[in-house]
Design goal:
mainly beta, Immunoglobulin-like, five-stranded antiparallel β-sheet, four-stranded antiparallel β-sheet
């Protein structure tokens, strides 16, 4: 913790000197993230620019062949983008590269071990890094997240390893959810088995990877139950307990062949029994502390009757009750907190926790059923999405929870609700840099939309004031916000219509077909379209999507059916652009695809933009959404109004 107090003092001083930077995050002690990728033109090298680097910082690159000592590659200090092409590498064999800041005469010149990387030119694939995985039969690598688990300055991956799963609306037995941790060089650190009393499915198992106690090592946090086995083989709770609703006797003889649509809706659900939240050591997977999961199935009750479930949630088979979301937020502006939620179609309960000195401590609990309101309809119930976002919407230095159509303040009280209801997608960021503050592009769905129903809208993220309505009178399933057209300032917005809007509501042409995710990939400051494991560029003149990367043809596949997402898209290594993490089609490896397209832009790693970094923490939750930076990144840069 003392280390982080020192770092906090440092970056506060830097922010005073450079207030335009926004909210930098130096909670993680990152190295340079040097990466070497083999290409047809040579070896592409890329590294991180850190927020505390001087504006005129320059770099030197070093190369060593075999066991030879490294020698400097560049004649002049590198002052442009943090990329370099070694166009004349050795024809074969092992090559080691290193990166240093250009120093004054007599200073340190050769790179430290943590800022070196080796590549075997006889074996390294072209265009990506490969992490061999150890996936059990019947399972596959699913959503992933990143954190510095071992404190070495580079990220590791925590992967949800999924077997047979079911949606909340369906009955059926599932396989126990697994989690694996891997280093980027392919070492598996641990496996955690959540056990049969935690159901597998897209809405059941959000997880968090972050350094919550400031000791330099990220922890892993998720919902657990009786029979969860940690990374050291120790069971949590009663390992012999089985809380699943069993198959009716009349169907048991044919259980293996019974189609899931014919099963009663509660079969395989876990509607009673203890639920826990556990913080695990990121290095070993060992359970550090476990508490009763909040929110519970009913107030102060893990075992509500079917009647009470229906009264509280609106159904009695766990469909609405077991909708979980999770996030990390700096609720005090200085330290990260754990945020867990339950429910968004009707009742919504959000709990915030701190992890300090090895113990989990409750910070606050927000319950939509306990908020006073005027009128007949509770504006705090039924407002959540299949996703969550975290941002300092009121610019007080402390994060708020953007929960669909409402926002919960850093102290656990409601900040506002638009009362526009549930939706599948939301995007919060500096979408319109011409106006002060942040904006939220929010998508809404309705089974029976009236003519005046608002299907999509852009709102002021601090006040909830609607800035413009995109689509009326129609249920909208998905929507996107990203700067894809350099002719207009800010992000472009689309969803539920053929129209593409500017950030101030002007229709500028037809919208892209893709409404899934976005990625910074090709080296300009526009964002590209990410759909599954395909990356496309929006041609704003021809109104067409241009293929940049074809994942299926390259041998990787997407996850989660109609969610159709990669394992992760994040700025994990190298320069400021994002990497694509996907599982190989043969289920034997994870691949990290790195953009080797030349770029002229020099920018601090996105992982030191606090809002973006927290977006990586919640990306795996529900319907995966892309992270957004607090500071606008786009083709047209405007001075921010005060």
């Amino acid at each position: 913790m003392q280390r982080h107090l020192q770092l906090l003092t440092l970056f506060v001083a830097i922010c005073v000197l450079n207030p335009a930077y926004g909210q930098p995050l130096d909670w993680e002690d990152l190295d340079r993230g040097l990466v070497a990728i083999q290409t047809d033109q040579g070896v592409f090298l890329s590294w991180r620019l850190l927020f505390d680097d001087a504006s005129d910082v320059a770099f030197d690159l070093w190369r060593g062949v075999g066991t030879d000592k490294v020698k400097k590659l560049n004649d002049q200090p590198l002052r442009g983008s943090t990329t370099f092409l070694d166009a004349a590498p050795p024809a074969s064999g092992k090559v080691t590269y290193g990166i240093t800041r250009t120093s004054a005469p007599g200073g340190i010149t050769e790179p430290q071990a943590k800022n070196q990387i080796s590549i075997d030119l006889d074996q390294a694939p072209f265009g990506y890094l490969e992490i061999p995985t150890e996936i059990p039969s019947g399972y596959h690598a699913n959503d992933a997240s990143a954190g510095d688990l071992d404190g070495d300055g580079s990220y590791e991956l925590v992967v949800h390893v999924a077997g047979r799963g079911h949606d909340n609306s369906r009955g059926g037995m599932t396989d126990p959810p697994l989690f694996h941790a891997y280093t980027l060089d392919g070492q598996r650190l641990w496996q955690i088995n959540l056990g049969k009393n935690v159901r597998e499915g897209a809405h059941y198992n959000p997880f968090l990877v972050f350094d919550f106690d400031g000791d330099g090592h990220a922890e892993f946090v998720c919902r657990t139950s009786d029979g969860t086995v940690d990374g050291r083989g120790q069971a949590i709770g009663d390992p012999s307990a089985d809380w699943r609703v069993p198959l009716p006797v009349a169907l048991r003889a044919g259980e293996g062949s019974t189609h899931r649509r014919r099963l009663p809706g509660d079969v395989g659900k876990i509607l009673s029994g203890p639920e826990y939240m556990t913080v695990f050591d990121g290095r070993t997977g060992a359970a550090l502390d476990t508490v009763t999961y909040l929110p519970q199935r009913a107030p102060d009750n893990d075992n509500p009757s079917r009647e009470l479930q229906k009264q509280v949630w609106g159904d009695d088979y766990g469909n609405r009750m077991d909708r979980f979301l999770a996030a990390v937020a700096f609720l005090d502006g200085k330290h990260p907190s754990i945020v867990m939620s339950r429910g968004y179609y009707t009742r919504t309960v959000i709990a915030a926790w701190d992890f300090r000195d090895g113990q989990i401590q409750k910070r606050w609990l927000f319950d939509s059923d306990e908020v006073n309101f005027d009128g007949h309809r509770n504006p705090w119930a039924g407002q959540g999405n299949h996703s969550i976002s975290v941002a300092d919407v009121d610019n007080d230095g402390r994060d708020e929870i953007v929960f669909g159509s409402m926002v919960v303040d850093d102290d656990g009280t409601g900040l506002y609700s638009t009362n526009l209801g549930h939706g599948d997608a939301q995007h919060t960021g500096d979408l319109d840099p011409r106006r002060p503050g942040l904006e939220t592009w929010s998508i809404h769905e309705s089974n029976r939309p009236e003519p005046d129903f608002i299907g999509s809208e852009l709102r002021d993220a601090e006040t909830g004031r609607i800035l413009f309505v995109g689509r009326r009178g129609r249920d909208v399933a998905r929507g996107m916000a990203a700067d894809i057209d350099p002719r207009y300032p800010g992000a472009e917005l689309w969803g539920g219509s053929r129209d593409l809007w500017t950030a101030n509501g002007k229709v500028i042409g037809p919208a892209p077909r893709s409404t899934n995710m976005a990625i910074w990939w090709d080296g300009d400051r526009l964002r590209e379209l990410l759909d599954g494991v395909r990356i496309e560029k929006w041609d704003h003149l021809a109104h067409e999507q241009r293929l940049l990367f074809d994942g299926p043809r390259a041998g990787v596949v997407a996850n989660n059916g109609s969610k159709n997402n990669p394992c992760l898209a994040a700025d994990l290594i190298g320069d400021w652009r994002e990497e694509l993490v996907a599982r190989s089609a043969d289920n034997q490896a994870l691949r990290i695809y790195v953009s080797t397209i030349p770029t002229q832009h020099r920018q601090v790693t996105l992982m030191q933009d606090r809002q973006y970094r927290l977006g990586i923490a919640w990306q795996n939750v529900g319907y995966n959404q892309p992270p957004h930076t607090r500071d606008f990144i786009g083709a047209v840069v405007h001075s921010k109004p005060k």
